[in-house]
Amino acid sequence: MNTRKKIKIRKRLLWGFSLVLFFSFALTGVIFNLAIRLFAVRGEVNLYAYRYAETSGLIGRVGLISIVLMGMMFLVATIVTYFLANSITRPIEKLGKFARQLGHGDFTPNDYAFAEEELEDLNTALNKSARQLGVYDSEQKAFFQNASHELRTPLMSIKCYAEGISFGIMEPKQASETILQETDNLADLVTDLLTIAKLDNITTTYTTSKTDLAQLIEEAAARQQAVATQRELRFVFELDEIHYTCISELIARALDNLISNAVRYAKSEITLSCKQRGNAIEIRVADDGDGIEAQALPHVFERFFKGAGGNHGIGLSIVKSIVEQHSGHVTAENSSNGGAIFTMTLPL
Q1: In the structure, what pLDDT confidence band is assigned to residue 328 with cuts at 50, 70 and 90?
Q2: In the CATH scheme, what is the code of domain 143-200?
Q3: Residue 81 and residue 17 in contact, taking contact as beta carbons nearer than 8 Å
């Protein structure tokens, strides 16, 4: 709250409260005086005593005393109202300062304790927002740093091979194949980055719908069928017919990422299952590869973490964000028979 607004609020409280008290006393005095005169005329007050008081100036002195008392009460009311106004505006001023602090990018929580329950509730809500914004801000900074590094790598590779062709030091066909491959990688990376940006955007809204999960899994496998056939991999389906209310486009994207990850590491077979377990739905993608290294297992869902043979280190983090957006969770483990198992658990 700026100084000008703060002074306006104090003045309004001060003058308002003081004037109310002043006119209350003045009105009481007028009514009292009129009542005395009326009762004297009606004979309910000793007429001679009233006239004596009137001629001797007693009523004038009483009136003067009343005016002095009203003035003193006005002064007392002014002082009391001043301190009352300060007690009201001071916590509001602190909350205003805290709000401006958040607006300038300082997300340090406010440690001031308010005596008023309503203001303390507002302060608690602002502190919660400050912590969330602080986490969001730090994640965004790390995201842009890592993203710039990941984008620079394929761009530099494309530039080097293009210069090699230009100066005639590289065989054009081989160099162009590498350029095409890096361009595909770059396109996939940009798509992943845009997906993350959309998921992280706190203002983004999605539409949910009743979705056949078995059909969604089969369609995701079909999109990876060409690569799987090239690597001589086959899909095994263990799907129950389950209709689930979700953001179908995001669940489809999570399935694409898990299945493409399995295609990258599988040796001959990928098993896709969808089962209802109690009050939850489990979707599993299992491959028969070498599994996940023990030291990498706790970090596979972290952004830009790349295990052995990894691509950009973004795909699995997208899966985690999508599942958490559906109030579920995703896990990674190694099978006792070899290979990795990724399980998405979605609550009903």
Answers
A1: very high
A2: 1.10.287.130
A3: yes
